[in-house]
Amino acid sequence: MRVKKIKQLREALRALEVNDEKGTLTAYGERFMFIPIALIHSIEDRLTADFGPATASMFQYQIGKEGGEQYIRLAEKAGFDLKKSSSLQQITRRFGTMSGWGKVDIVKYDGDRKLLTIRWINGVSVRNRKGKTPVCHFGRGVLTGAAEVIFGRECESLETSCQGKGDPYCEAIIGDPEEIGLVANGSRRPSSSRA
């Protein structure tokens, strides 16, 4: 286990470049910064206080979608093949888990129907396990934006499980808006193909 952790750390550090002169951190030609999770929470709180929970959720989701597109484009620059499910699994682990979003995995992939089911634990938006509704709007947006690039079409998502509601993990189905609508209405079950 320790050897695996060291290998993962080396892979992550290989991509990072620290420029002490400029005070910048880059990876794959893009600038990054480390931020505390408390900053994400304070943004969520400010949006909710100023605009109400529904509008705040929509803002978080839309901002996440833009970020997800950037993440997946970065993965392309890093040499990942967006058409292979094995490569997509590596992307979720490197850019999701190793970036601190939580432990992220693709649990189902259906390239024909353009559907992904992604599961994560310890997501940045989960603060407690007592809510009544899913809370991972920003993260779900990131996953949806990434899926839009992968599938080359507009996507939508539905968070079906959330640790913020007391579920053991967070999970979202992402894909064609019509398919997601059918799943949301109970008219269709999500794909069962493994990633």
Please name the defining characteristics of this protein.
195 residues; alpha+beta; Muramoyl-pentapeptide Carboxypeptidase, domain 2; 2 domains; four-stranded antiparallel β-sheet; three-stranded antiparallel β-sheet; 6 helices; globular
Provide structural commentary.
The two termini are 23 Å apart. The protein is 46% helix and 19% strand. With 195 residues, it is of the alpha+beta class. It has two domains: 1-34, no CATH class; 36-184, Muramoyl-pentapeptide Carboxypeptidase, domain 2 (2-Layer Sandwich), CATH 3.30.1380.
The end-to-end distance, rounded to whole angstroms, is 23 Å
Total count of domains? 2
Strand order across the biggest sheet?
Answer: 4-5-7-6
Question: What is the CATH domain class of the largest domain?
Answer: Alpha Beta
Average pLDDT value? 86
β-strand percent reads 15-25%
Can you count the beta strands? 7
Q: What is the assigned CATH homologous superfamily of the largest domain? A: Trafficking protein particle complex subunit 3
Please describe the biggest sheet, giving its number of strands, its sense, and whether it closes into a barrel: 4 strands, antiparallel
